[in-house]
Design a protein that fits this description.
Elements (H helix, E strand, L loop, with lengths): L1 H6 L4 H12 L4 H7 L2 H25 L5 E10 L2 E9 L1 H24 L6 H20 L3 H19 L6 H32 L4 H10 L4 H18 L7 H5 L5 H11 L1 H14 L3 H23 L4 H21 L3 H27 L17 H14 L6 H15 L4 H25 L15 H23 L11 H23 L12 H8 L4 H46 L7 H19 L1 H21 L1
Antiparallel strand pairs: 1-2
Helix pairs in contact: 2-4, 2-6, 4-5, 4-6, 5-6, 5-12, 5-16, 5-20, 6-7, 6-12, 7-8, 8-10, 9-13, 10-13, 10-14, 12-16, 13-15, 13-16, 14-15, 14-19, 15-16, 15-19, 16-17, 16-18, 16-20, 17-19, 17-20, 18-19, 18-21, 19-21
């Protein structure tokens, strides 16, 4: 049974697509008679089937060599577009995580979207996301991975803009789509340019080629920079990070999936392309710089956010920046472990924030407080998510951070350990700040009446909290964690103390009465710098948007006054010529014959002009000759 499900693991994306297709049947006419809920129940059922299929297949593939097979698609003119598929413990494990988180997110949506009639659109798009993520995990081709990423970009636009009657939602969907398109355009350039050099798009073959490749450094640097541009947009890295913040205008169930595993698609491509990217030291240094800026910048910006969802969204940018650092230093195993621990903790964190937003009048952190006694499940979920995201033993993120820190110390980049410690401390500070403002202190006017959520929202939080707490035990049982005797004690203590320092300082500031509330940065300029996202939106408006506006206005002027002017000139000349010619036409046949004769004569003179000129010259010369003889 397990082997049969393993051989048919490529069918898992089809389950989700079938659920999406069935959801499309609930158009308004049927929805008015049956209600929107059946569309959601169909997708939850299909996702559950996908999860069970993947779990059973994982047991069959564990500790077994990877299996590769292909699906023929198009072979024409020397171009072979066959879809290669890789089935391994890693790829099937990714499918388990994706299907499991989508199952919990869809269950959460049953409660969160209880009064909403857009179930069909939301659940079908979440199913499309699941199908795309599963297909991306199985696909072993850079070209088809790019196509899947494009589909996911379109899905982001549609699912963020699901409440399309709100202006902020429309703006967020548009900006998310356009920002990702910038990175995708450069990624397409890199994908096309890589084929003539490597001769393949297969990830396994690219890794083999990179081991012995002897390529021009300038060429591979340009290709590598283009290849990392796409993951920059997907992972919301500086300066292509603004879309994730604006995408928070969409429904929380979609944000659960997007902030946990959808943003990790860029990290997955980076890990797959690491052998190719390592051919250029410039590309590796660029990834390290981008990751460092995004990690520190994202964790700093999160401290100044007053919207609970936006405060958590910038931490996604920070942790994906750490993944960029890991891939740039060739620590791919640490990168994958960070992606796993971040996905579980961030999904739980978004559930907790969604539970707060669902039945609260506001999602402003400064107007909430005192919810611990009223919202125990939501509060415990945020506590568990915080423990799973910062470096505190024995929770999952501690082991991933420790693995990366050990690799950084031994790879000749010890200063990056400092970046890791700073980001960890800032993350602990920011998460403790959010917990203190929402669940600590005394109840405020906006939070006096805020009961706990009902079971469809509480159940996924409880299940994911338990799984997050037991993740280290699961990883240890799979021999993916080192023993306590083999860990770097000094590095572990540095990580632990950075977490304790950040959390303790934040608790003293926000739970104590030592500092006046609301808390402000000591320097207003620094407060504004962080609160306004390092003025990145202003930079966009004054550079890219301004340049596009100037070019558009110039193009419009040229089109209106030059192109249209020339066309209009010919039209006016034709019009006036026709008007004038109609008065010179008598309708007599001899007049038309005379006109034809004159035209033929002019044409003959024009064609014989060179001969006539030569004859005139000869006659003139003979006349002068006769006069000279006379």
């Amino acid at each position: 049974m397990a082997q049969l499900l393993l051989q048919s693991v490529w069918l898992i994306p089809c389950y989700s697509l079938l659920g999406a297709a069935l959801s499309a049947l609930w158009f308004p006419g049927i929805t008015r008679r049956t209600g929107p809920r059946p569309a959601g129940y169909v997708n939850v059922t299909m996702t559950f089937i996908s999860f069970v299929h993947a779990v059973i297949a994982l047991t069959a593939t564990w500790n077994q060599p990877a299996q590769q097979f292909s699906i023929p698609w198009l072979q024409v003119a020397g171009l072979d577009l066959t879809i290669p598929i890789e089935v391994s413990s890693l790829t099937v494990g990714v499918i388990v995580v994706v299907a499991g988180l989508n199952l919990l997110a869809q269950t959460f949506a049953i409660g969160y979207m209880e009064m909403d009639w857009g179930w069909g659109r939301l659940y079908s798009l979440m199913a499309v996301f699941e199908a795309g993520l599963v297909a991306l995990a199985l696909c072993n081709s850079l070209f088809f991975s790019y196509i899947i990423l494009e589909i996911l970009t379109l899905g982001t636009y549609l699912i963020v803009g699901i409440w399309f009657n709100q202006s902020l939602v429309v703006t967020g969907a548009r900006d998310a789509f356009l920002t990702k398109r910038i990175g995708d355009l450069f990624l397409l350039m890199g994908v096309i340019a890589l084929l003539p050099i490597a001769g393949t798009w297969n990830f396994s073959e690219l890794a083999e080629w990179a081991r012995t490749a002897n390529v021009d450094q300038n060429t591979i640097t340009l290709i590598g920079l283009a290849l990392i541009a796409g993951p920059m947009g997907k992972c919301a890295q500086f300066p292509l990070h603004l879309w994730l913040d604006e995408a928070m205008e969409g429904p929380v169930p979609a944000s659960i999936l997007r902030n946990s595993v959808v943003v990790a698609t860029g990290a997955w491509i980076l890990v797959k392309l690491e052998p190719v990217l390592s051919l250029s030291p410039v590309v590796q240094s660029t990834m390290i710089v981008i990751g460092s800026i995004s990690a520190i910048g994202g964790s700093l910006i999160a401290l100044a956010q007053i919207d609970i969802k936006r405060a958590f969204s910038y931490l996604v940018t920070a942790y994906m920046g750490i993944v960029f650092i890991a891939v740039g230093t060739q620590q791919t195993e640490a990168a994958l472990l960070i992606v796993l621990t971040h996905a579980l903790s961030m999904a739980l964190m978004m559930m907790s924030s969604g539970a707060v937003v669902w039945n609260s009048i506001t999602q402003d952190l400064t107007q909430l407080g005192g919810l611990w006694s009223r919202r125990p499940v939501s509060g415990l979920a945020l506590v568990v998510a915080t423990l799973g995201l910062i470096a505190l033993p024995p929770f999952g993120s501690f082991w991933s951070m420790l693995k990366l820190a050990d690799g950084l110390e031994n790879s000749g980049h010890p200063w990056l350990v400092g970046v890791l410690l700073i980001v960890n401390a800032l993350t602990a500070f920011g998460l403790t700040r959010a917990f203190s403002l929402v669940f600590g202190g005394k109840p405020k006017q906006m939070s006096e009446r805020s009961p706990e959520v009902h079971w469809p929202m509480a159940l996924p939080m409880i299940i994911l909290s338990a799984f997050t707490l037991h993740l280290p035990l699961i990883l240890q049982s799979l021999s993916l964690l080192p023993s306590w005797a083999d860990i770097n004690t000094n590095m572990a203590l540095l990580l632990i103390w950075s977490s304790i320092f950040g959390a303790s300082l934040s608790a003293v500031i926000y739970l104590g009465n030592y500092i006046q509330k609301p808390v402000q940065f000591p320097i207003k300029a620094l407060q504004d710098l962080v609160a306004y996202d390092f003025y990145t939106p202003n930079l966009y408006r004054n550079s890219i948007v301004f340049s596009v506006a100037v070019v558009s206005q110039l193009t419009s002027w040229i089109d209106r006054y030059l192109v249209d002017g020339v066309v209009n000139l010919f039209g006016m000349v034709t019009l006036f010529s026709g008007q004038s010619l109609k008065y010179s036409t008598s309708g007599q046949s001899q007049f038309y014959a005379l006109t034809i004769l004159v035209g033929v004569t002019v044409l003959g003179v024009f064609l014989c002009w060179s001969s006539l000129s030569h004859m005139v010259l000869v006659m003139t010369a003979s006349v002068f000759h006769q006069q000279s003889l006379g």
